[in-house]
Structures are given as structure tokens and as C-alpha cells.
DNA sequence: TCTGGGGTCCTAGGACCC
DNA sequence: TCTGGGGTCCTAGGACCC
């Protein structure tokens, strides 16, 4: 059996951990730049606040309804996440961390144990150890475990743990469960299925294989098997990333070359930092610039360029240099740019780097970057920068309602008055 | 009249996930 | 004024190889 363990309203729950006064109150967490809502507590959902709702349009509504608003605090969420995932691995060695708030667990060889009981124990342990509420769904396949998890959430009487452990139970549930709520069915597939008159998971599993493969590719066919109870997907091991992207919207339209260039250099150095963190180099970079797509009245210019590097590297200096080269080829004066990004592609293990005949990454950079990483790690990110970066700039992202990094910065730790 | 067969690599685009 | 960021996998078609 597989289990899908999922943290309830994860970001909102994290914000509540050190603010017990917010228990039972509506909370929303905003995206970067405090742009739109990306997480909501149950109370906020009950107020009808939608995912992706724009923050500025709802200021008044938030105030009138005493909604507590937070900027996203990834230092906090990331740390709490690893604590939760760590606690889960006590119950089975087979864990796949699927996202910041979800893990798949495999329970092979547990035939003589009650999974319901194990699930309840996991919930208790995680709540006690971290304060984060979780829901757990057990089922014979990953796709069904996803469904079981939703049922655990939907039905309070389950105690947050739902075990799909009999054929009868499985058949009964998939006959009722609607297809739009299924892992792997996005808006496009849903539209097509709806047009075919397919409403439930059961109906989907009865479609001919050929049709599913033709319209939803092999991915859809695998999903069909999974939903029919045929184990097709297994746990996946953690692999180093294949691409690393740093992209940001700006706080305003940038019309000057120097400003855009500075951002691209900064993104490139962060990319390089992430490459080094997973011991990779990249062989290809992509740089893009975008104007504000929401402003139809302004001239638009969206351009990206992919560039093969003369040699693989993870040096911030070199990557910044190449990224500026790339930017020069796509940047056009006269536009107000709103967003840019740098992507590192064709990653390979740094240890396997093939030496080139004529040109190579400067070998001295490895030591230099190691020192930079060490300093930035100790003093806070982006303390040591390239001279071509804006040295005064801290992080011009709008983050007006950022909570403290309670668990990762000693000077931001919770204080208790007694 | 007839003009093969079997591959790989690359890119763009589409779909999905959190 | 303002509307996020970061990933993966698959397919089709073109260019090229022997």
C-alpha cells in the first residue's frame, strides 16, 4: 500500500505555529511581491477567498473580516517541511518527498498491521512534534492514495486517515469521485473528458486504452491503470534537478538597461549558487525578459534566448558574464520590462566535468565560490556580491508582512513573556 | 516503371504538478 | 498601484546519419 501524507493548509499552518492567537482565525499567505493569495487557512477558504485572488483588490475585505495576511516566508516553510518529513520516515523507510507539503510513503510488508492505526499514530506524532496538522490516504496505488487523501480531508469522521483497503471500498468510491479532482487531470484533459460525457473516475477507467493513449499520451494511460488499482508508478528517488530557474517580477517597469542587467546578473549568481549546492555545473543557459502582460495598452516585448556555453560552469562570475551576453542579444530599449529570468540547463555532476581543449572554467573560481558560499551561508544570503550587482539593494521584493524566521535565525526566535 | 530502411538528436509546444 | 515561482515529462516534426 501507498500513503499520501499531506500537510493541511501548509503555509497558513506554519504561520500559526508561533502565533497561537491565530488558531481559528482566517489567514492568507501572499505570493512574492505580495501579489496574490497562494495559501489560505480553512477559515479564509470559508470566507470565500479564492486561490490567486489579488491582494490589493481585497485589502478592504481582509480588513473588514479580520483576515491575517502574511508575505511568504520560505525560510520558515522549508524548515518546518523538513521536520515533518523527517518525522514520517520513522514509520517506514520508503519515503518520497513529493513537494514541500506532501510525501508518498510505501508500506510493503505491513499485512499484519492496521494501517488505520499507523496513520493515526503518524498524525499524532507530527502534530505533537511540529504542530502541523496532516491528512493521510492509504491505497494500493499512488493515484488512488491521492484520492484517499482527499477523502480523509473531506470526511472529519475519518480522523484524517482514510484507508482504501478493499475492492468494494475502492469501487464504491471511484464510482462517486469526480474526474476534475484527480491528480493528473488538468483543465485541458478535463474539458476533453467532459465532452465525452465522462464524469467519474470509474467512467474514466472504462475508456478504451487506445483513446486514452491517443489523447492523453502514455501519461494518461498510466493514470488510467493506477486508478483501476493496477500499480504502475513506484516511489521515485530524489534526483538532482535537471533545470534551475531564477525568475522574478520587478516591483515596477524597468526601462533602463542597467537595471535589467543588474537583475539578470543577480539571478545568474543565485543560479550558480544553487548549482553548487547540488554539485552540478550547467552547459546551457536561457535568459528571458518580459513586459507587463496585463497591460494591453503598453508595447509588449517578450523574448528569450538559449545559449550554449563554451564550457560547463557553476561559477557565479562566469555565469553572470554569459547571462549578460545573452541579455544583450534580446534586450531592446524603449520597453518597460516587468520580469526577467535566468535558467541553467543541461546540468551535469561537477565531478564529471569534461575539460575542453581551448577554453575552460577558470579553476580558481572553485575556491573563490566556496568562500563566497561559506560567507553567505554564515551571514545571510547575498551578503557577498559581485561589484556589478546593486550593493545597496537588499531584496526589493515587496514583503510587507513577513513573519520572523522563527526556526532558522536565532535573533528571530520567539520571545515569551512570563 | 521505379525511386529503402532504420536510426538519433534537437526543438517547440503542450500537458501536468506543487 | 496591482495580478508568483519553480519544476517534470511527453510528442511531433525536422534535420541529419549510415
TrEMBL record:
One of its GO terms (biological process) is SOS response. Residues 2-186 form the UmuC domain. It comes from the Bacteria. Pfam families: DUF4113, IMS, IMS_C. InterPro entries: DNA/RNA_pol_sf, DNA_pol_Y-fam_lit_finger_sf, DNA_pol_Y-fam_little_finger, DNA_polymerase-Y, DUF4113, Rev_trsase/Diguanyl_cyclase, UmuC. GO terms for molecular function: damaged DNA binding; DNA-directed DNA polymerase activity. Keywords: DNA damage, DNA repair, SOS mutagenesis, SOS response. SUPFAM superfamilies: DNA/RNA polymerases, Lesion bypass DNA polymerase (Y-family), little finger domain. The keyword DNA repair applies. One of its GO terms (cellular component) is cytosol. Belongs to the DNA polymerase type-Y family. This is Y-family DNA polymerase. The lineage of its organism: Bacteria, Pseudomonadati, Bacteroidota, Cytophagia, Cytophagales.
